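Just wondering, does anyone understand what follows?

——
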Amino acid sequence: MYYLHEDIISNTANSEEEQTDSSKQAIVSPEDYIKHPLQNRWALWFFKNDKNKTWQANLRLISKFDTVEDFWALYNHIQVSSNLMSGCDYSLFKDGIEPMWEDERNKQGGRWLITLTKQQRRADLDRFWLETLLCLVGEAFDDHSDDVCGAVVNVRTKGDKISIWTTDYQNKDAIIHIGRVYKDRLGVPPKVIIGYQSHADTATKSGSTTKNKFVV
């Protein structure tokens, strides 16, 4: 069951009138209705910045899924990131991990961070976020996919951000592999550097930027 927030429901709807008699009578093969399981069960979260509520009260669990078909059904039913109001987030995390630093699986971890310019919202944001989701549900990071906790997209006026969270900022081999694969999948030019930050550093930063522990 989907618990969809009114801010993220897409206005796209399929009309029953579009169905023809021939399509109703078509023979359905078993492959058409047997769903394809994912390696993990995932949960999609939505955050809307309402200053009258606490941070946790602004975070809503939208839906969980564990098949390819249910992923696409959910993705096609909600607004793309570029249509969200500033201050909103989507988070996709493995079931059992909440999208916050304090979660047991996250607190010793960190994130690969992609920062987009204002101009990139229309050109790249939705493409980058979908590719990020496909990297997660498709277990794109080989033996190091177990280190991945989830991903977040932050829609902000000054510039949007997308990040992949991992569980242990000291696991250098896993982090570097994930970063290289991720950069390649997004099509980020080799000369553009992306950085990895620990959540501990981000939470206690005193300046405007957090020091990168790793870069690719």
In short: The chain is about 25% helix and 25% strand. The beta strands are 37-47, 59-67, 89-94, 110-115, 148-154, 161-166, 195-198, 214-215. The first strand starts at residue 37 and ends at 47. Helices lie at 21-24, 30-33, 68-75, 120-137, 172-186, 199-204.
